[in-house]
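Hi! If you just cloned this repository, the fastest way to understand the data is to look at a raw example. We've pasted two of them here, unedited. The first protein comes first, obviously.
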Amino acid sequence: MIPEPDDGGLGAGDSVSSAFEQQIQEAQQERAADLIESAGAPQGAAVPEPLSIPGGKQLQRIQTQAAQVLRPLTDTVWSKLDRKATAVAEFTLRQYRTKSSTWVVLGIGVLFVGMMLMFYAEAMATGYEAFDNDGDSGDWDRDGYPDGQEKRLGTDPNDKFDFPDPELYPPDDPSVWVNEDGFDWDGDYGNRNQGHDDDGDCTGEGWTNPDSWSLPGNKDYNGDGIDCNARYRTNETGQIILGILNDPNVDEDPDEDVFIKEALHRGFVLGFGKIGFVFLIGIFLPLFLATGLIRDEMDKGTLHYIMGKPIARAEVLAYRLLGYLAVVWPYSTVLILGTALITGFIAPSDSIFRFDDMAAWLGVLLASWFVMLAYGTIFCTLGVISPKFGLWIAIGLGVWEFAMAMISLGAPNFPLSWLSISHWGIEIVNCTSILAYPDQSWMAAVSETVNWGEDAPITGFYSPPTVIPTSAFGSLLISIFMLLMVTVMGLFIGQASLKSKELN
C-alpha cells in the first residue's frame, strides 16, 4: 500500500480546488477595483468583498453593462442568424453532394456548353469566300479585262473587240474588283447621311466618261438630297439604327469574311447567352435542384427534425435557398467565364484576346444569376404548396417560359411576354449588349441590308431595349428589379405556405 503524501490534511484535489478558488477571488477583487476607480473612487481605497461594497447594485449594473459590451461576437443576434444560415446551407450542400442526380444535371450542362463551343470554333475556323456582290469582277466578253475596269475606262464590257490599250492599262486581277466597296460608318448616330462610293460606280469619280451609260441615272434613290450616299433610318431615340437605304452602287460590295464572322460571333454571344445560359441552363438547374428543397424533406418525414431546432420555418426556406444558390451561382460563373475566355481567343480580333466581349458576357452572367434566383424561389415554393404535383406544375411553368422566351426573341415588345421571367432575363442581355457594343444596331442593319441570312444570325438574336428605349441602363435596372420582385413574392408565398403546413 502506497502511503498518501502529507499535505496538512488536504488531498491533492482539495489543494488544487482551493488554489483555483483563491485565484478567482483575487481576479474579482482586481476587477472590482478597476470598476470603482472608473466610477470615481479615491485612488488607494480599500477594496472590500464584492457584496459588501457600498452601492453594490450599481456595481452589479456596471458589471452587467461591461459584460454586454465585452460579450463575444458569437453571442450576438446577427451571429446567431449567421450560424443558423450556415448550418442549414451546409446541410443543403451536403445533400447535393451525396446525390448522383446533382452530378448528372451539372454534367449535362458542361457537355452542352462544350458541344456549343465546338460548333463555334468550327464556324470561326471556316473562312468565308469573298463574293462579288455587284458582279464587276467578271469578264463578260472574255477579253481579259474585268467588267468594272472596262466601265471605268469607257470601253464596252460586252464587246470582246473593244478593250483598253494593254500598254497603257494592263488588265486588273479580278480580285481587285471584289470587296472594293464596303460599308462606311463613322459611329455617329446623329449623322444619318453616311456611306461613300469607294469604287466610283455611282459618282463617276475616276471614270474616263462621267456620263457613261453604266452610271445610275438617279443618284439620289434614298431621297435625302445627297447623291451617292447611304441614309440611316433610326428609331425615335436616334440611337438605334433600324435600316440602311443606299443610293445605287453605294456600299454594295463589302468584305464577307470580315462582316459575316463579326456578325456570327456577336450572334453566338447573344444567342447562346439568351437561349443557352439564361433560359435553358437558367431553368434546367432550378427545376431539378430547387423544386425538392422542402418537398423532399416533407415526403421523407424528416422536415420536423429541422423544425425541432430553434429556427423559424420561414428561415428554413430562405436558408435552403442559400444552399441552392451556393451551388448554381458558382457553377454558372465557371461556365460563362470559361466560355468568355475560350471565345475571346478564337473570336475575330486585332489582338490575341478580344476584351470587348467581357462586358457582354458579364451581362449574361448577371442575367443568369437573377433568373436562377427567381426560378429557384418559384419552383421551391411550388414544391411547398403542392408536394405531390409541384414538379408537374413547375414543368408546365417551364413550357410557358419557353414560349415566352421565343416570343421575346421575335417580338420583344409583345405585352404578354412581360409576364414571364425569361423575358426579363433576355432584356438584361439586350441592355448589356448595347452597352458592350455601341454599334450593335448598325451591325444588325448591315446584315439585313446585304441579306446574309443564316450566315449572320445576329439579326435573329439582337433586340434593342424594350422597357426604356432611350436608356439601356434604365431598362437594365428595371429588369433586375422585376426579377427581384418575383423572387420576393415567391419567397413570401412559400414561407406563408410552409408556416401553415402540419408536419408528421
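Ok, and the second one:
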Amino acid sequence: MNHSAWRHPLLLPLLAGLLLRLAAALYGGGYLMHDDHFLVVEAAASWADGEDYNNWLPWNQKGTPQAHPANFAYVGSQYLLFELFHLTGPHHPSHQALVLRILHGLYSLLTVVLGYMLARALSPDCKQTATTVAWILSASGLWPLLSVHQLVEMACIPPLMLGFWGLVRSSRLQWQDILIAGIGIGVATGMRYQCGVIGIALAPVLLAQHQWRALVGVGATALGTFAVMQAPDLYVWGAPFTQLRGYIDYNATHAGNFPKGPWYQYLLTLLGMMVPPVSVMLLWGAFHRGRSAPDIWWRVVVPIAGFLVFHSAYINKQERFILPVVPALIVVGWIGWQTWSQRSQWWNRHRQLERGLWGAFWVISSVLMAASLPYSGKHSRVKAMEFLYAQGAENFAMVQVDSGAMPPQFYSGKWNSYHIDNRREQQRPPLQVAKTWCASPPGFILFQGDRHLGEAVSQYKAAMPGLRYVTTIAPSRTDRWLHELNPINSVERIMIYATGDALPCP
C-alpha cells in the first residue's frame, strides 16, 4: 500500500483548514456585510422563490429598466444552489444558510492548495516555504471566518490564484500555461470586475519579457472566458455586458456616497490584516526582491501592485476590496522575505528574534481566529427574522429608532414588503402610522434600536395598549465590540410585540 499521500505536506494544513471552516460554519452565522447578504443571498433566494427582492430583473422594473450595479455571475451561481435546495432540501432558510457556509468553506480550501502550488513554483528548492504558506492561508487570523461567508471578494480568490499559478509554471509560457492563466483571470474578473486590473497590469510585464504570443494568448483567453461568464446578460437584458455598463455607470454617478479614506488606507489594512510586525516583513519581502528576481516573480508582484495602486487611487475605500490579492501577496511576501533575510548579515545574527516574531504572529492569529469562529453577524436582525419564520408570520412592521438597517427577510421565509416607521427621519403619531398598515395588518411589530428604543416602545404602547410583548433579541457581544471599535457598525436590540386586535383598523 502506498502511504505517500498521507505524508504530503499539504495534508495537515488542509485538515486543519477544513475543521476550522466547519467550526466557523456551524457555530457562526448571520452575515458580515451588507453586500454579501442583500446583493447575493437575498437576490438569489428570492429568484428561486419566484420573486425579485430588489427589483434587479428588467421585467420587474417600472419605466425604463436600469441594469443593477452588481455582478450577475456570482449571484447566478448562488441562485442555482437555491434551485437545488428546492428540489432536494434543505428548505428551512437557516439550514440553507448553513449549507451555503459549508460549501463556501470547502471551496475556499482551493486557495490553500493553489497557494501551496504557487509557492512551490516560485521557490522550488524549499518545500517548507510552501507548507508555511499553506498553514497561514488555512489556519490563521480571520481566514476561516471570511471563507464561509458569501463575499464575492473571497469567491474570486481561487480562480485568481489559479491564474497566478499558470503565469509562473515556466519562464517561457507554453500553451497550457497560457490557458490556465487566461481562464483563471477571466473567471476571477467575471465574478469581480476589479480583477481585470490584474490582467491590465500583467500586460507590460509580458511585453518587457518579450512574450508577445503569451500576452495575446492570455489576453484572448481571459476576455473569452469573461465574455462567456457574462452571457446571461443576453437573456436577461437582450444585450452583452449590460451589467458591466450598469456597474460602471453606478460607480461614476454615486462616487459621493461611497466610504472615503486616505490613499494609504489599504496599506494600513494590509499591515493590520497580516498581523504586525510580520505584516511589515511580508510587505518588504514582496516589493523588495531586487534585480535578482526571476521573470516569473514580476508576473505576480506587478499585477498585485497594480491592483493595490488602483484601489488606493479610487475614491470608494472598503477593506474587503483588497481581499482578492492578499493570499498571493502572502506567498510572494514570505518567499521574498526569506530570500532577503538570508542575505542580510543583521538578520543572520538575529535569527532568534525572527523566530520570536513569527511566534508572536501565530499567537495573535490564533487568538483572532478563536474569537472570530463563533461570530454571528448581525445577530439581532437574523434572529428576529427566524422568529417570524417560526411563527409563520405573513407580514410584519418595523419601527426603526436608532438604526435604519434593513431586515434580512430571507430568514423569515417571506418576501412581502414590510411596513416601516423610520422615526429617525420623521416622528409621526403611532396611531397615524398604524392606520396606514390596515390594508395588510402586520401580526408583529419589531422595534429596532438601542439607546432610544424604550421611548419609541412607550409611545406605541400608550397609543395601542393592546400590544403584547413577546421577546427581546439582543445583539451579539461581537456586534457590540465592533460598534465600540467603529460606530459606523450599527448595533441594535429588537423588541417584538404581537399586535392582536390592538391596531386601529376597522
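That's it. A detail worth noticing about the second one: The chain has a mean pLDDT of 92.
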